Structures
1.
Amino acid sequence: MDFLNALVMLTNFIIIPATTYGAQLALGALGVTLIYSILRFSNFAHGDTMALGTVVTIGITALFQSWGITLGPLPTALLALPFAIIVTSLVMIGTDQVVYKFYRAKKAATIVFVMASLGVMFMTNGVIRFLAGVKDINFTDGERFLIQARAFKEWSGLDQPLALRTTQALTVVVAVIVVAWLFWFLNRTRTGKSMRAYSDNEDLALLSGINPNRVVMVTWLIVGILTTTAGVLYGLDKSYSPFTYFQLLLPTFAAAIVGGLGSPLGAIAGGFVVAYSEVVVTYVWRAVAGYVLPENLQPEGLLQLLSTDYKIAVSFTILVIVLLFKPTGIFKGQSV
Amino acid sequence: MSQSNRVIFYFALVAILFLLEGLTNFWIFTGSWDTSVSILNMALVSAVMALGVNLQWGYAGLFNVGIMGFTALGGLAVVITSMQPVGEAWEAGGARVLAGLLIGALTIGLTIMLRTKLPKGNARAVFTIVVLVGGFFIYRSVFDPGVEAIEAVNPSVAGYLGGLGLPVLLSWPVGGLLAAGAAWIIGKTALGLRSDYLAIATLGIAEIIVAVIKNEGWLSRGAKNVNGLPRPVPNPVDLQADPAFIEAAARFGMSPVEASTLYIKLGYALLFTAVLVIVLILAQLARHSPWGRMMRAIRDNETAARAMGKNVTARHLQIFILGSAICGIAGAMMTTLDGQLVPTTYNPLRFTFLIWVMVIVGGSGNNIGSLLGAFLIWWLYVKVEPMGQWLAQVSTAGLDPNNWFAVRMTDAAPHMRLFTMGLILLLVLRFNPRGLVPER
């Protein structure tokens, strides 16, 4: 019984939240990796693009709700998502035309792109603060729980509750669909193949008649899908605030680099590595130990390795370890 | 216009802006000399930072996005150097905390030693993990009770170890040293890899340094702030009680209170100018020395410089540490000026990004340009908010105050800064990448 209780606790406080967060990070990291492999720079505006997509979704959701359109048990935001993706992708393609295209034509150094993306980041941040202010916004509606804590306790007869929120299940389902589609697109379609060719060897790709402008545009479009979905899922699961979205930048970069910059599979693996490390390291293990260890070995402290205030340090530590020992990441990305 | 004429023109423009601020309250100006000198003081501190960043970016092409972290370390230096030690707290847990930190450092040292001494293989991996995990638990068991004891000592006014009680001016070089230490750690990790890795790594370390200062109450009182830092200038109360000073103030037609705040601010301005001039002279000397030429050669063509036998990574580490140390000094100056350490005020826009805009707008690679950029952009940064309010007023003049646009415009005026600074950076990068005063 104690063992079962411990297992339920682990599922409730580690496996479910970390898997959800990992899926969100993986989607974010996929975007970073795509931009890196096609456009060849680290996009610092990524976190704020996620926020922009979320803000647009929040706006459209509110509009739908005011018209009385909802999705029943599912969050209305899901219905607003496709429209928000279109808006975000258009904004990104526009940004590319106005900002990055010029440097691409000039074949500017990577660091100039990074700097320009920093400028884009702050402008986007200004825009989202103008549109939605700085406060936390909760935009989830519909059924809150798939498995309710009390119902589970009654059903199982265990001391420990288990809760599964709709948004958590939804995150994983949507993420799986998006990732499956992305891999199908990259591996099976002509455009996807030309993108991979462009990423592997730009000159050869140009020589074989691939239109670089089209590749870049499709990339931004896909990045728009990934960032908006990631941002909306994160916002549904937790809540939206410009500051937390800015702080997602570091874990997202860490995920992409751990997996190997430029490798889509690596980005997904990296997302889960970062998410699980963050949750495991900041979790208070005392109660779990109470179930598993014999009475005379009970710990006195909280058994928390790191206070939650230092969550950001986890992604940073992972980043540093990777940079020191394996700069190409788990899946051998392009970076040296 | 020749370069030197252009410099004179721009500096004259800056001077006029500061004079207008003091003389007239038309449009966005306040008409107060007090505000004018306050803006000047922060501009001077920002100029020191801009010189540090220019050293890294302009001389060596290193992209440091963690200026905020080095500035915050400077702020922390003021607390640990100049505050009086809290005796009770030291008795309660000082030794434990120091021992804990020592154990932490020893663990890391031992790990590094093991990894260099032992041959590659499973044994090394096992030893590394055992030492790290074991060291971590010993560290926590020694460190945590100490922290608890310290934070329990008179939490409303103390709850931290205090400082060393040394003169506050000494904290400026200490801030430089702390920042240099952090820069060494970052540089060792991220330099020599892809250029954007340094950017990501510095972004991370800055967030972590600020998180530490916000959360480690025993060190910095965290969110409770440290107030009443000692000043390097006279106390306003003493001045207002001094008959000679009151008489002098009367001669300028000012009340003693007004005169004393202005006097103190001018005192800071003098101190900051002194630091700025020293840093500027050193930076210029360095630039025209063989070392400076080598740095620029490395920046312009790393491969060629490497072929000439230059150790690029080591030189980059050197200049990265130097530039960060200057940011640390400036951070200490800023906290001294504020008279308090408020960890929650550190945000990347103000402390990282703004300095970048200053360097890029002024002209990267040119120290005078960075200086000019610092004055212009700081002035703009202060004034964007009143400009935003003015814009909100003008653009919503005919509208109902409850209109969506009117509400958003009025709410958004404070956030205009983010947007404007981003826009300025993009415009300058695109249309005038060499800046107002280009490198010669």
2.
Amino acid sequence: MNYWPLLGVAVIVIGFALRFNAVPVVVCAALTSGLLAGLHVPDLLALLGKSFVSARMLLLFVLTLPAIGLLEHAGLREHAQQWMGRLRGMTLARLLIGYLLVRELLAMLGLTGVAGAPQTVRPLLAPMGEAAAEKIHPGLTDADRDEVRAVAAATDNIGRFFGEDVFIALGAVLLIQGFYAQHGIELTPLSIALWALPTAIAAFVIQSVRIWLFQRRLQRRAQAERNA
Amino acid sequence: MSLLRIEYAYWLIAAFLLFTAWRNARERQGYRAAFWALLGLLFAGGDMVLAAQKAGNALPSQLAGVAVIALALLAPLLRRRAHPETASASARMASAIRLGHTLFVPALLIPLVTLLVALFGEHLSVGGIALFAKPQMTLTGLALACVVALLAASRVAQASLPQGLSEGRRLLDAIGWAALLPLLLAALGEVFTQSGVGAAIAALASMILPEGNAFLCLLVFALGMVLFTVIMGNAFAAFPVMMAGIGLPLLVHRYGANPAILGSMGMLCGYCGTLLTPMAADYNLVPAALLELRNPYGVIRAQAWSAFGIFVATFLFMWLLVFR
């Protein structure tokens, strides 16, 4: 067993720990592992180029930017925030937990590309979340705003990840089935997908509780500042 | 034969990247211009690279590899640059009041059109030719939705399409090199696989495993999924490694674990790792850049405790169910 290619992992860990720019760190790690595994330089270059180009779909989100940018220029965020401020029954927790539920259900139907950070979080969910947080605590600091946005992005991630495996035709389930089939164990996709349901429910409950705790923390701080 | 294919979306991206490069060049932002231009060329030539590789000609892929290394050298030279907002706060507020809910329409068109294509795209055809190609139909739908939304947005905001491109370019420059990471990490995963990094990790993990303790074995498997996903940024890369090393030979064959439960819940343990790692750039670093957080790890921080809780819950389910 050749253990030397593991040094590529070490390059990643050290690079991130020292907070170097991530792009050269990742490329260095790939070159390190490839060379230590004994790949020839032309083959390694071809492998790097081919796999980079094959992953182009990951940059598809940039196509949302012109429309979103134009709407922001025309006041999309300001309107989302004002509207949130006028909705009486809508709290921060209700907004985020409602979004979590919708996101998870859509992911279960295989519709993971429908929402996401560029499509829905930046233009809609984050500004609405900030406005809802402002209703609780009018004196939001910049750090608070960052946290509200980060929680919105985290809610989007969690809804997507733990919903998608319940849908049978998606990548992960097919990968699991394919792996077992290669090793002589035949399973139907449905028998695998079903077991993702307990975690999907747990993820919904856990993230909802954390959102609620976040809201309560803001409420308490607002209360303390009113009393002071 | 079909009218709309994912390749057209890549050409649109290439055009947008080259536009961004051109605008940066005009503003004498040389490194930035070179960075986006190089990426634009990689997108424009991507189909050719893959076709040549398939036909046995490795030269275009090698050139693409050189371009990737050049991008890596350029990335640290791009300082974060905040473009001044193109409209003042008061102008945006006035426009928000004037336009009201119509502003939501184009934004909601993006998910809505994508949804419609994902649900009904298969059945649409024009003159006997399918409208959407089957591979990547949802993503093709997303690309179409973006074009529709841009047209709608320029109508609602009474702005021209070039102005939309400039606004998009403002956001793209704000994201900067972070946009590149998802693609690079996918390439890294491929290189790691080809170099046998996974096999080496599995060999190490089985070396430290105690004999005859099914619970500990399951725990090492679950934690291994998390750890390896943190390193690779992707549970899909961790899964075959951990399964081949520990899951299949030990848990399934020796201790009689249920393969369906082990596979499904093992993968979900890996997803908890995805929430924790900067290597999952498209979920953790790109949103932080997109939301303009001051801490690039802000999203990871916000979801760390959730990841921990979901991991504990999943592990408990797995332990209770898998050996039945």
